[in-house]
Amino acid sequence: MAGERKPDHASHRKRLRRRFLDGGAAALPDYELLELLLTMAIPRGDVKPAAKALMARFKTFDAVVNASVDDLRTVGGLGEVSPVAIKVVRAAADRLLQAELAGKDVLSSFDAVLAYCKAVMAFEQREQFRILFLDRKNRLIADEVEQRGTVDHAPVYPREVARRALELHATALILVHNHPSGDPTPSRADIAMTAEIVAALKAVGVVVHDHIVMARGGHASLRALGHL
Fold this sequence. Notes:
The chain is an alpha+beta fold. The chain is built from nine helices and five strands; from the N terminus they run H-H-H-H-H-H-H-E-E-H-E-H-E-E. Helix 2 crosses helix 3, helix 2 (30-41) crosses helix 6 and helix 6 packs antiparallel against helix 7.
């Protein structure tokens, strides 16, 4: 209708930016933090419906940024750029968490190790087996994904783990894999496989500090459970 006032989306975007700058992320609920992110990928219009649709679909902010691009594209109103922008946030978080480990004794920074592993693995939809290779001072030499598998199995070969540790001149390592089911409880196969890897590495003088199972529902340490 003539003379009807249109929504001022530009002013709303400006208010979101100001609230974020003044109070940080804590000043915005999850859907508004997503909304602010979407304003950077979608230059005009109201992005609140898309932000709320993301929360309705994935339930939590963590789940949104850990969703696959294909799953994000199922949510209406995002366009082509927004899924990429969301995944850039995830990648940036991974880099920052990995930087927290650089040059440190990871055994004295174990909370940082757990935070990093949760970020990069807990929401994966297929099993992934990752190894953190350490030097004599337990500093991170390399972080490598050795195997990717199915929804409940990622084959690991102890001789290959030992060979790679020797190539990197590692003296210790931490094994990590995820359970896409959401339950971090180690299986009998997990425990048996760990024993095989420990034996193979002991033969070449490399120590296994722990084997961590990551999942959306938490984590489990095979050392803490007495299996290592």
